[in-house]
UniProtKB/TrEMBL annotation:
SUPFAM superfamilies: DinB/YfiT-like putative metalloenzymes. This is DinB family protein. It comes from the Bacteria. Belongs to the DinB family. Pfam families: DinB.
Length: 55
């Protein structure tokens, strides 16, 4: 479980770094698939991880 947590943390940090390079319009632009926008997808992933770890 620790390995999975570490991997997910690393990937999430890479997403956050990448998102810092993109302007607000691109982050919130509605898209087809997923949760609708890059930002909503990122929040969804973080929320799912939180729910998993809090069990």
């Amino acid at each position: 479980m620790v390995e999975l947590f570490s991997y997910n943390w690393q990937i999430r940090e890479e997403w956050f770094d990448w998102c810092r390079e993109i302007n607000q319009e691109e982050l919130t632009k509605e898209r087809t698939g997923g949760m609708g926008s890059i930002l909503k997808n990122l929040f969804h992933v973080a929320d799912c991880d939180q729910q998993c770890y809090n069990g």
